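Researcher: Please predict.
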Amino acid sequence: MRRLLKLAMAAALTLLPATAVFAQTEITWWDFLSGGDGVRMKALIQKFNDTHPDIKINATTLEWGVPFYTKVQTAAAVGQQPDIMTYHISRYPLAVPTGILRPFTADELSAAGIKKENYVDAAWNSASADGKTYGIPFDVHSIILYYNKDVLKQAGLLGDDGLPKGLDGLDNFNAVLGKIKALGKVEYPLSINSDQGASIWRIFYTLVAQQGAKFMDGKEIMPGDSSLKALDVITNWIKSGYSPQLVSYEASIALFTSGKAAMHINGVWEVPTMVDLEKKGQLGFHWGAIEIPNLMGQQATWVDSHSFAIPASTVKPISEDKVKVVLEVIRWMNENSISWASAGHIPAYKPVTASADFKNMQPNAVYSKLADTAVYDPISPLAGVAGPIYEAAQNFIIPAINGQLDPKDAIDQMREELQGQQ
């Protein structure tokens, strides 16, 4: 009996190390990613879980925009926040002053092998404030110019490299629009989403930035005449019949994909739409995409970024051990972000964009240079996804470009409204 007892105890002790090896750290993950982004992120999470038996990511997808950010704040207040979340960098100026983001220390980042020099400068800097790093960028996403190669070739506007030519400079660009319209092969030279403030804000802000101007300078909103000039550009496109009035997001895409518009301004996130239609033989023409041309004198493009961050909670702060695991997750996600690039995004992790795989990814590799001249939303609580500026664009810029409000009155009223919210 004693011999059997000793053997049983020895067997139990032998099993202990193996049991310890397979102990899992569970990480609670929240994101707001739907559609193609959601599919790709779920695949990344599954791959991570499959290759890391000691870590399990339990992921939940919540509603994009204000509902997501409100949920995070409410959850952190009662100590029920996730360990890691996706967060738009444009929301950092609103989030940082409220204390909702837990900063990473230099020692934590160093121990995880996360180095600033490996990330797009503008993205990393925009995720930092007051010398602290509040999040790690995952991508750079922006608006780009989609174009129908067949129509542009017929108009003599396509180079031997398959890229448009003669688009830089506002006068040149407008002349191109006129030439395409006169060609009579399409209904419209240009398609834009002209009934939604968020879409128009991205174009409007790009045109402001291309003048080397600021939308906000300290507490002053829309100083000088750069905002009015930007608004006049978009208004003219619609007034001249280059682009139709009050077109919904979905309809603006359909105008391009059906061949009724020669060019289309939209986010990089619609690249998979074009790729899928082309693969199915449903596009009907050859297409490409480039960064928004330099129309106003200085190359610049509105951008935002998805990033990874940790919510701060005084009720139930995250442990140091979990922070280490979260940073391991973040590092792995960025190192494996080539699949995320297939959604049209530009990886924020430079070693990925420098890879042969990315350089062979078209048209992403063509427009990825826009990351070097990226311009994020103003550093203000008024800015960012679903913030007051987006609402003001809906209330004033949309009516102006569609001929329902005088452009100067629109700028004056927009300035007054935002000034009152500071």
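Model: The two ends are 81 Å apart (CA to CA).
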